[in-house]
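Reading a protein record of the kind used here takes little practice once its layout is understood. The reader may check this reading against the record printed directly beneath this paragraph.
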Amino acid sequence: MPTVIALDVSLSMRRPVSSKTSHDGGEILTRHQLAVHGINQLLNYLQANSKLEFVSLLIFSSTYEVLCPFTRDYDMIRSRLQSIEERDKTCIERALHGINTVIMTEWGITTACQVILITDGSPGVGPMSLGYSLNNMMHKHNGQFPLPFPYPAKLNIVCIKAGSLTNELALYQRLIELAGGDSALLLPENDQLSKSAISDLFKRLAECNYVSFQGYLKCGNLGSKILLSPPPMSYTKKSDFHTISGLTLSKNLEICGFMSVTDVGSPNSISRHLILPLPTEKNFSTQGISLEDESDVEDSTSASDEGKSPSFCVLLHGALKVENMAALCLLNTNWYGFIYSWADTKKKSNLMLTVLEPGCDIVPWLGNFNNLSTHEIVEKSNIPGLEVLTFPLKPHEKRSYSQNAPSWIRQVGLQSDIQKILRHARKLPEKTQNFYK
């Protein structure tokens, strides 16, 4: 999933590390140098294990600046890290506003994102301080405080600071609570500010947040090991009277049947994922196997790209693309999704998975998924009084108003889309081509 790295470049980050907490053989390092070292370690991990991750680099002090827009070119980010100059005092609220702007401009409010904020734990001073922002949060109009995020996101705050029981860290812990979800505050172990301690810290961060999802996609007697990118996040379903949290996709995904893409329409979805095939042994069986996350995803993916062995995913992708069909897939108990071919460009298409909300009756015009069947099965059943309906299903209750095609629009997302159009309009005629996409 897209990641924003927000790096504090205030003057306090240029303070040298105390010799009592540093163990780098007499080398005098600043907190900024340790932060850059940690970011490079994270990029190395992504380059080896999650090459498809988009990463953006943002720096902040009392203002923010996007040094590198979302890219998979990690070498570009490394080069930008080497030319950063120090600035004035820290303003965490301004940084969070910048993060929201960057993500919503590029991805909207439906894409799950990772936010990594790196600082020295200093809350700032005066009206720009974190304490001032939190104390005046309730007095802001129109929800101007940037947390909680208007999109699904996980906030990881990395404090390059020795000592854990301080008032400053309590303020950052408050930010974690506002962000919610699986957000976390990370500190070096044993209060050590050294390259090795920072490397371990960012390794922990990477291993917790960039775990690949590997599973098995099955259709009848055919199947293949797959990799989903980005990895699906756990889902929390809220209703009026109760909340169900921790819903996760099963490692075994089963295709139940196929229907026309036109009939599927545009149902409300939680997330979308790219399906990548992994090498599958000929005697592979989903019974009693262990589908654990492996570190050699890169080797597996490159082996599958050679095209020397038959692949069920390639067969499925080609069939869905030619027939303009979508596959209804069982993701877990009473939880479904659709697999289909999505064209990135005129020459390239990908096999995609759209994850629906949990439930069997969540797409009104398709009815209950448990009632779906083929005409052949219905004709052979000879059940008297059995009514066969076609898509789209009509609602049981006739509304007194006209029902147009459904559109899933949220206020924030619509506003960000309009702002993007206005930004392009200001840069005419250079941005003329964008209006024809």
Notes: The longest helix spans residues 31-49. Residues 85 and 341 are 46 Å apart (CA to CA).
